[in-house]
Model the fold of this input.
Amino acid sequence: MEKQFWLDRWEERQIGFHLPEVNAHLRKHWSALKLNAGDRVLVPLCGKSLDMLWLREAGHGVLGVELSGIAVEEFFADNALDMQAEAEDVFSSPQAPEIKLHQSDFFELQPEKLGKIQAVYDRAALVALPQDMRKPYVQHLSELLPAGAAVLLVTMDYPQSEMDGPPFSVDEQEVRQLYHEGFHIQLLDSLDVLAGNTRLAERGLTRMMEQIWKLERK
Ligand SMILES: C[S@@+](CC[C@H](N)C(=O)[O-])C[C@H]1O[C@@H](n2cnc3c(N)ncnc32)[C@H](O)[C@@H]1O
Done:
């Protein structure tokens, strides 16, 4: 997926992925990561997700990475947070714990720019990427994380022939293939999200599962 695709989606307000509330899987499963308050959380491909506010309320420093300047500006403006420019492409809020957003390409982010990260929250990041970008994504994430770092990952699994991504289907086998070398993998939950979702059924989908994973960097 080209960078321009995402920049255009923000320009054209095609941001159906942005949720008006905190993600239910985050609320339910975050404690499984067994983090300490104060641990710093990386949110790759963060958009202007409200989940970052929830993570801060849980006591974590938050580092989001996002291509679009529109998303970054709107995150601070929508949530009435002061936005300070720390560098050309790094913006933060002065209120503690810190929320810092890097307006940059995740794939170009260098570990020294981030400082020490103890956890990652991935909702709609891995599944936003087409198949040929997923291995490089996991590779780069692995390089950014120290041993012991924990990841909460949300994936979806549906017949890809029935709908174009993004979000793309990433099934259980692919998750295991992508992460087994660098991470311990635990499936926390698997839910049928088609039942009760008439919108997806109307789009012709015959199956849609969501999986919640806990990963730990080896
Ligand atoms: C599907 S959205 C998900 C946003 C957010 N995680 C959420 O749950 O609302 C994917 C986001 O990743 C951003 N993005 C795509 N490719 C990126 C890249 N290479 N580096 C940084 N951000 C990227 C897009 O601009 C978009 O905001």
The longest helix spans residues 131-144. The helical segments are 3-11, 24-29, 51-57, 69-78, 111-114, 131-144, 172-179, 198-202. The chain has one domain: 3-12+23-217. The chain has a mean pLDDT of 95.
